[in-house]
Write a structure and sequence with these properties.
alpha+beta; Phosphatase 2c, domain 1; single chain; about 400 residues; elongated; 10 helices
Length: about 400
């Protein structure tokens, strides 16, 4: 088994004036190393298109994840989707990227813009085989995965961007390829790449998209473990065992909390170098311990990270804050969202006496809830999470 994994991210903008997006992306894990990603574009826009694309992506992703053949998936879609009374057709176009054992990508495309593959920072012209299933022309490709490969699936709202405005014939595929080739060497995450691409489409539409535009990016990368220690153990006698397990794990080490960092410093026999530099008014300053990659305050900082994580999964509007700032929450966010693929949480269940002040909005259950919420967000980002309590 190789040490590759897939970083998956997507972003959509709605047709101007519509509440719902007519495109839909579904990601289903077949097993630990295999994933099915479907981008479906429903006919038209608004509610009807949203229903068509959601049905299509859900049916295809579920059936393929269960190992059913493509022919059966397509015939099921044709039989399931309602017929449009105006156009007399009933379908949603779709793109499927099926990652198998983090070794190969099977790409299946029906009427969506062709998937762009960036390899070695350049456009990769991959082979395609034409198939006819139920009267539908479908293209199938099988690509052996390499580290840093980038796959970009789009709805037709992306190449249509700018039609009749900045461009006569929209944002051509070759122009989008050049745009992506310029971004590939930077090493952006899949979510950030999809956000940049869709934001560019939004600009080309003059802020009033004439169609739903969606980009789904898959970036192949090596696994990167990360370890985060949050809170002292409920039993003081477990402190050494907790520290031993934490520091024995490969990957970077993050410590959150004043008492926790004091225990770690004592275990390592190293001093804590505190900082009084407030990068952000609402996030306490960081500290330093030799042998630890990042030392931050606890609950307030982690609460901010959770806020950033929820936004990252949605509109990603806080990206410009945490992607460049040097405060504890921003540094943790960059490590967890962008670098890490496998994250080990070591969570102490000790009740902090400082949090028992009834005037403080912090208590033990809030701390546990933060860990659960952050873990859930990171799982949605495609991270492997393991939480150990002490």
């Amino acid at each position: 088994m190789n040490d590759l994994c897939a970083d998956i991210g997507y972003k959509s903008v709605n047709h101007y004036g519509e509440e719902l997006c007519g495109d839909h992306v579904d990601v289903v894990e077949q097993d630990e190393n295999s994933t099915v990603i479907v981008l479906a574009d429903g006919l038209g826009s608004g509610v009807k298109a949203s229903i068509l694309s959601t049905l299509t992506s859900k049916i295809i992703s579920t059936m393929m994840a269960e190992g059913l053949p493509l022919e059966e998936c397509v015939s099921t879609i044709a039989a399931t989707l309602p017929v449009c009374s105006v156009r007399g057709v009933a379908y949603s176009t779709f793109t499927i990227i099926h990652l198998k054992n983090n070794d190969i990508a099977e790409i299946i495309q029906y009427d969506n813009p062709q998937v762009i593959v960036i390899r070695d920072d350049e456009n990769y012209d991959y082979p395609k085989t034409e198939m006819n299933i139920g009267g539908k022309k479908i293209f199938k490709s099988i690509i052996k995965l390499r580290e840093n490969d980038i796959f970009v699936a789009m709805s037709d709202g992306c190449p249509h961007a700018g039609i009749g405005m900045l461009y006569n014939f929209g944002w051509k595929r070759e122009d989008i390829v050049s745009f992506l080739e310029g971004l590939a060497p930077v090493g952006y995450t899949a979510k950030t790449l999809s956000t940049i691409l869709v934001d560019e489409c939004f600009k080309l539409y003059g802020g009033k998209p004439g169609d739903d535009a969606t980009a789904c990016v898959v970036r192949i990368r090596k696994r990167e473990p990360m370890n985060i220690l949050f809170g002292p153990p409920s039993n003081r006698d477990d402190a050494n065992r907790m520290m031993s397990l934490f520091f024995s794990k490969e990957g970077k080490h993050i410590i959150c909390g004043g008492t926790t960092s004091s225990i770690a410093a004592k275990y390592l026999n190293k001093p804590i170098k505190a900082s009084i530099n407030f990068e952000k008014a609402d996030v306490p300053p960081i500290a330093e311990i030799e042998g630890v990659d990042l030392v931050t305050e606890g609950v307030i900082t982690v609460n901010k990270v959770v806020e950033y994580a929820n936004d990252y999964l949605g509109e990603n509007k806080y990206y410009e804050h945490w992607s460049i700032k040097r405060d504890g929450a921003s540094l943790i966010s960059r490590l967890l969202f962008e670098e890490a693929t496998d994250i080990n949480f070591y969570v102490g269940r000790a009740i902090n006496p400082a949090h028992q002040n009834p005037d403080l909005p912090i208590n033990f259950s809030i701390k546990m809830n933060l860990v659960e919420e952050l873990s859930a967000c990171l799982k949605k980002m495609g991270k492997r999470i393991k939480v150990s309590y002490f």
